[in-house]
């Protein structure tokens, strides 16, 4: 083989097995973005009612009771039908509202920790 050919082959072999130092990092590939899509109408409804990113604001010491109560109300509505639609809230599903309230509870709990 020519020197150029050997160099190209060596380069190909050296670059074939790429390395990525991601041990210990969160593996975001585990989340299917389509799973999150049902949450978007819930966020959109909240924005139209309360303003942009209102969910991030400080709700005071009652935040846990209030969001937990909302979570349970929506959970009750979808207990026997996971695809129950909330006609009072723009036709969004109750189950994404359960997930949304859980995520907001987690956000506020972590921000206060």
Q: What's the quick description here?
A:
With 113 residues, the protein is mainly alpha-helical.
Explain what you see:
The chain has 113 residues and is mainly alpha-helical. It contains five helices and two strands. Strands 1-2 form a two-stranded antiparallel sheet. β1 and β2 form a beta hairpin. The relative contact order is 0.12. The model has no long low-confidence stretch (mean pLDDT 89).
Poorly predicted tracts of residues: none
Q: Which shape, going by the Cα principal axes? A: elongated
Taking the sheet with the most strands, its summary is: 2 strands, antiparallel
- Order of SSEs, N→C? HHHHEEH
Q: What is the number of helices?
A: 5
Radius of gyration from CA coordinates: 24 Å
The CA-CA distance between the termini, in Å, is 64 Å
Mean pLDDT: 89
Lateral strand order in the biggest sheet: 1-2
The fraction of residues in strands falls at under 5%
What share of residues is helical? 55-70%
The count of strands amounts to: 2
* Class derived from helix and strand content: mainly alpha
């Amino acid at each position: 083989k020519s020197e150029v050919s050997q160099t190209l082959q060596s380069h190909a072999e050296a670059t074939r097995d790429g390395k990525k130092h991601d041990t210990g990092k969160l593996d975001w590939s585990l989340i299917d973005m389509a799973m999150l899509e049902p949450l978007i109408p819930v966020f959109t409804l909240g924005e139209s009612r309360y303003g942009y990113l209102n969910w991030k604001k400080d709700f005071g010491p009652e935040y846990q009771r209030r969001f937990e109560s909302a979570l349970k109300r929506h959970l009750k509505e979808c207990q026997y039908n996971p695809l129950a639609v909330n006609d009072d809230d723009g036709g969004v599903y109750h189950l994404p509202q359960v997930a949304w309230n859980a995520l907001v509870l987690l956000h506020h709990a972590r921000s206060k920790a």
